[in-house]
Specification:
The protein is globular, with a radius of gyration of 15 Å. It is built from 4 helices and 11 strands; from the N terminus they run βαβββαββββαβββα. α1 packs parallel to α2 and α1 packs parallel to α4. Helix content is 27%, strand content 27%. By secondary structure, it is α/β, with parallel strands linked by helices. β9 and β10 form a beta hairpin. The chain has one domain: 3-Layer(bba) Sandwich (FAD/NAD(P)-binding domain), CATH 3.50.50.60.
Length: 188
């Protein structure tokens, strides 16, 4: 069983997986290869002069797997169970078990809606709905969190990546029972 499964490996999902895997949590990163970022040209991403979306997505996946996240390419079709024992079903017929889930599916709320998670109006001009989350990023279904554009934040990759990290840190903090902090220092 995975401690944390992340659905979507765009900026929000890969960023979340980077933090959860680096924290030593057994992390599954499920990617349908439908990321909006894969079609983007970015010149507004802090710390990067300019980058093609596919390169940014590939780098995010590489960072997450470097720390042990297990990357699987498949489309999630259903989630059953409850916090601590979710079953994630995929288009290929494979299923995975996870204690906690982070949904980071960009503009797509259909999975969340199909399993009874509340949605709300979205502020982005091209999206009508977003997943309703609390201030920490948890949805109305205990143990399922949401990050990035699908959770109602701006679609810009710098924002969604930050939100993925924020939600992962909040989930890690809940699991640890105190605030989780991950700061590396320069090695001299």
């Amino acid at each position: 069983m995975y401690e944390i499964a992340i659905i979507g490996a765009g900026a929000a999902g890969a960023s979340a997986a980077l933090f959860t895997a680096k924290a030593g949590k057994k992390t599954l990163l499920l990617d349908s290869n439908k990321s909006m970022t894969a079609r983007a040209w970015l010149e507004n991403h802090y710390g990067v002069e300019a980058i093609e979306g596919p390169e940014l997505v590939a780098t995010g996946k590489k960072q997450a797997t470097k720390f042990g996240a297990e990357l699987k390419e498949d489309t999630v079709t259903n989630i059953t169970g409850e916090a601590g024992s979710f079953v994630i079903e995929t288009e290929s017929g494979t299923s995975y078990e996870a204690a906690n889930i982070i949904i980071a599916t960009g503009a797509l709320t259909n999975l969340a809606e199909s399993i009874g998670i509340d949605t709300k109006d979205h502020r982005e001009p091209r999206f009508k709905t977003a997943i309703a989350v609390n201030e920490d990023g948890e949805t109305t279904k205990k143990g399922i969190w949401a990050a990035g554009a699908v959770a109602g934040v701006s679609v810009h990759t710098i924002v969604t990546a930050g939100d993925g990290a924020r939600v992962a840190i909040n989930l890690l903090s809940e699991l640890k029972g105190e605030r989780y902090v991950d700061h590396d220092v320069l090695k001299k």
